Amino acid sequence: MIDKLKNILSSKKFLYVLICLFAAQGIYFSAVINYKVPSDEEFHFVLTKYHAERPITAGPIIQDQSSSFMLGDVQRTPSYLYHYFLSFYLRVVMTITSSQDVQVFVLRLVNVALGVMALLMLVSIFKRINKSQLTINLTIAWLALTGMFVWVFAGISYDNLSMFLFFYLLYELIGLKNVLEIK
Known about the structure:
Layout: H1 2-9, H2 12-32, H3 41-53, H4 81-96, H5 100-128, H6 133-144, H7 147-153, H8 158-182
């Protein structure tokens, strides 16, 4: 019985089920969470919409900030590149619908996709360091079944992109370490 359970938990199919479970929960949370409930979501949406309503040639740097700027103090412009890139997707959505609720939901779906990509990147990290499929699956299960982890990816936030990029950086650093060890 234990061996059968271990085989199920170690299977690639189980991993795919976990990724789908994470995505389903993320989509569900994206649909039912009220706008502005996730931390700073209003700021992230408004800034993304601000970029979407500007000409593409304006670029990601905001230079027309005044003392009564509607977005507040925007001093750390490099950290807002997420909003600029997300604004291209929002431009397309805005041509289809003017409903803010739909726009927020669709942008949340992009963040759920970032969560799926982050989990897949974590799987790649574990494979690169030669962890067993059981270890990989149990780690992904732990994250996919943690409500707060899913909640974070169900809202609009640059934290979601940063988590994916952090995992990607770890993946590349491990690869670099492996290359340097060979020489």
